[in-house]
Design brief:
binds zinc ion, elongated, alpha+beta, 21 helices, five-stranded antiparallel sheet, five-stranded mixed sheet, 28 strands
């Protein structure tokens, strides 16, 4: 009997269990289909520095401070306290706790009043996700939801969602937001007293607001501390401390560290928590130096500046100061100077020189002309309005001479250079490519501090280019190429680093000249300055093996200042930055690549010496890349015994001798003559020679051959006629369209008014040699 009863009972239980297990998933499925989980809330976007310090957070779309709480970021005391207080059996139950529901229902029936405590964390979460009026039917839905949540998420995730949504009054939600806004602390560093305070506020967030009713919160906090004491939830030592802790009625603003950087990250990167590459210590140093520096120069009408610090090793952005003071409305502090398009002045020159060295066609000691030159109608000037005649490439770069740079660009080809900048992601240059001229090398284009500083990392990075890395450990930064692009050989960039780290240069500020490089005042760095046309922008970009730093100074309203020069305005700050960020850098200076060798060259031309070259100097060359052209400046001619008369094969007497004379470019020779520079001139040609003198003939310097001149109809614009003469020539005769026009002293200029269309211009010298060129003139 008992056995059969038992059997029956067992069967019933089994049936029920079976029924439960069959029906429940089915019912759950139906419920799930009819009532899908309410939509999850959106969370505040949080931006962190590399070391995990919160830089800023942004309001959610529904204007809430709602930061997502990962349990690993929350103080364990807080988690323990909240579970003890709200839902002791959280880790054990299946969404709801039948025992406490039963207890609560009985209390309701007997005492006729509501008793709390029946709601599990799951049920409270369901209510926060989907607020509803309190009724028995809603309670049932809440219960089902609680199970649904349990089925959807692991316990840890449920706890995270719950901690993230707890209300804290006003628009503050979640313990993380509350922790930052009420205690100005990350939630991992809360004291026990603070943690317990954050546990009690959500019970009545409008009543218990730390900023308005700290007394009320304190009372409630202590009541719960006593409860925890009774249950020995925490050590008595910690509890005693917690009882003594005061509660200040504060509400802190949300942090906004490195504001331009955070705005940039917010606009360009998606994600809830973004861990960036920003190095907070370098950022703080840079901000302070820039801010103090601007205070010092404010009176000179220089109201703003921007600084970008890049770590060369991984191209990570270590500091990003878009302006001196984000909140300075008068100086347009909210404008991001790192992204502003400005004229680069001379700061692009090193890339042209690197291109020249890289091609092998040029080396440091080769010469470029530095005299007034008409580049097809474009006549650049030097910064100091002076000329040097002829200069070596390294001298031209370190002294930032304009004419040699334009002439180098003209030799290398404008397109070759702009293509380089295009590959270096200079956006404005890409879009303006078709309108750019040779002036691009002097700043006749637009760049940003970000583009420029990024491009300079090519030098410390052995000629390789890549995009900047804004995120910690480069997680998910799709901008970075997998393999950096090689722009220049290691040797070419080493040559640039050597030239730019020289300290005998005009762009060393007055106050720093005389100091040794590597001393406390002058860090060992390579740098280049730039000043834009009209003194609107002052630049200094520098690098050492560890960092590349870009500095821009100017005004966001575009106004210039006579004090705005790269050397005087931007260099002192650049040096301060290097001294503060990387003083006594452990990293040694760049190592000379093995394929970069040294050789003796002719000091006058920088080419391999011929037997006539007397003065020699050392120069770098890249093995099997650099040219091996011999100097042909000196040519042997026939002269008489005292070298006063030159002979040609036609008038060569029996007695003669040979002598080497330099053959300078005609424009340089002319410049030497005009500036009283002594040089070894060819002697006069034999006056008794009956054959027409067969020298080089006049070389027309202006106008430019085959060039199209645009002349305004109404203007009185005239064109300059000027030619370089052979030695011994005194007069130039000018013919326009085969008709005699005028004569001039050899080498001197005269003007003429051209006719519309083709103009044929002929210059003849008094030895009868002539030269003809064509130009095209268009009146408009
Ligand atoms: Zn020579
Ligand atoms: Zn002759």
């Amino acid at each position: 009997m008992i056995k059969s009863l038992n059997k029956l009972f067992n069967r019933k239980i089994k049936e029920r269990v079976l029924f439960f297990f069959l029906l429940f998933p089915f019912a759950a499925l139906i419920f799930n289909l009819l009532f899908p989980l309410p939509e999850m809330k959106s969370y505040s976007k949080e931006i962190y520095a590399k070391d995990g310090t919160l830089l800023t957070a942004f309001l959610t779309d529904d204007d809430k401070w709602r930061m997502y709480c990962r349990t690993k970021d929350i103080s364990p005391d807080l988690i323990k306290a909240i579970i003890e207080k709200e839902d002791k059996w959280f880790y054990w139950h299946f969404g709801f706790n039948p025992a406490s529901i039963l207890r609560a229902s009985i209390s309701n029936l007997i005492e006729g009043k509501r008793v709390s405590g029946a709601s599990t964390i799951n049920m409270q979460l369901a209510r926060m996700l989907e607020p509803k009026e309190r009724s028995y039917s809603n309670k049932v839905i809440e219960l089902l939801r609680a199970v649904q949540i349990e089925l959807y998420f692991p316990k840890d995730k449920i706890l995270e969602l719950y901690l993230s949504l707890l209300p804290y009054g006003g628009n503050i939600e979640g313990v993380k937001s509350a922790s930052y806004l009420y205690f100005n602390q990350p939630p991992s560093r809360l004291s026990l007293a603070q943690a317990v305070a954050l546990c009690v506020i959500p019970n009545n967030p409008n009543l218990y607001r730390i900023d308005k009713n700290s007394e009320g919160v304190l009372k409630e906090r202590n009541r719960w501390l006593k409860y925890f004491q009774k249950n020995s939830s925490f050590s008595s030592f910690n509890l005693n401390d917690a009882f003594r802790e005061k509660l200040k009625p504060n509400r802190y603003p949300v942090k906004f560290t490195a504001p331009h950087f955070c705005n940039f990250i917010n606009q360009n990167f998606v994600g809830r928590e973004i861990y960036t590459s920003l190095d907070l210590s370098i950022q703080t140093k840079s901000e302070n130096l820039l801010w103090n520096y601007i205070r010092r120069v404010y009176s000179r009408n220089v109201t703003n500046g921007a600084v970008l610090v890049i770590k060369n090793k991984d191209l990570s952005v270590a500091a990003y100061c878009g302006s001196a003071d984000f909140y300075d409305k008068k100086a347009f502090g909210e404008v991001n100077g790192i992204k502003a398009v400005r004229s680069p002045g001379s700061t692009l020159k090193p890339f042209l020189f690197a291109q020249a060295f890289n091609s092998g066609a040029y080396t440091s000691k080769m010469k470029l002309l530095d005299i007034e030159t008409d580049f097809n109608g474009y006549i650049p000037e030097n910064f100091n309005l002076k000329f040097s005649g002829e200069v070596s490439l390294d001298f031209a770069l370190v002294n930032s001479l304009n004419i040699p740079a334009v002439s180098l660009l003209s030799n290398i080809g404008l397109n070759n250079f702009t293509s380089l900048l295009e590959k270096g992601h200079f956006q404005t240059i890409i879009s303006d490519k078709n309108t750019l001229g040779l002036s691009v090398i002097l700043g006749g284009c637009g760049v940003t501090l970000e583009e420029l500083t990024r491009f300079y990392t090519i030098f410390p990075n052995r000629g390789k280019f890549n995009n900047l890395n804004y995120l910690k450990d480069n997680t998910g930064n799709s901008d970075m190429e997998e393999k950096p692009v090689k722009f220049f050989s290691e040797s070419a960039v080493y040559m640039i680093s050597e030239i730019l780290s020289e300290n005998k240069r005009p762009d060393l500020p007055n106050e720093l000249s005389g100091y040794e490089i590597g001393s406390s005042k002058l860090p060992k760095i390579a740098w280049k300055t730039g000043t834009s046309y009209g003194k609107r922008d002052a630049w200094a970009i520098g690098f050492n093996p560890n960092y590349t730093i870009g500095v821009w100074m100017g005004n966001f309203n575009g106004k210039g200042s006579p004090f705005l020069s790269g050397a005087e305005m931007a260099v002192p700050l650049l040096f301060d930055l290097f001294n503060s960020i990387d003083y006594n850098s452990e990293e040694r200076w760049f190592k000379k690549p093995d394929e970069l060798l040294e050789r003796e060259v002719c000091a006058e031309t920088g080419l391999l010496p011929s037997k006539f070259c007397k003065s020699l100097t050392l120069d770098y060359f890249i093995e099997s890349i650099s040219h091996s052209n011999y100097c042909n400046l000196y040519k042997e001619i026939y002269v008489n015994s005292d070298s006063s008369i030159e002979y040609c094969p036609n008038c060569l007497p029996e007695k003669y001798t040979r002598a080497a004379y330099p053959d300078y470019p005609p424009e340089l020779e002319l410049w030497y003559q005009e500036n009283g520079v002594k040089y070894k001139q060819h002697p006069r040609h034999n006056p008794d020679c009956v054959i027409k003198y067969s020298g080089r003939g006049p070389v027309i310097l202006s106008p430019s051959e085959n060039f199209e001149y645009l002349v305004e109809q109404k203007s009185d614009e005239k064109i300059l006629l000027r030619a370089a003469p052979d030695a011994g020539i005194r007069i130039h005769y000018w013919y326009i369209n085969d008709k005699f026009y005028d004569k001039s002293s050899a080498g001197k200029g005269i003007f003429f008014k051209p006719k519309n269309g083709k103009n044929k211009i002929t210059c003849m010298d008094d030895k009868g040699s002539d030269r003809t060129i064509l130009i095209n003139v268009k009146y408009f």
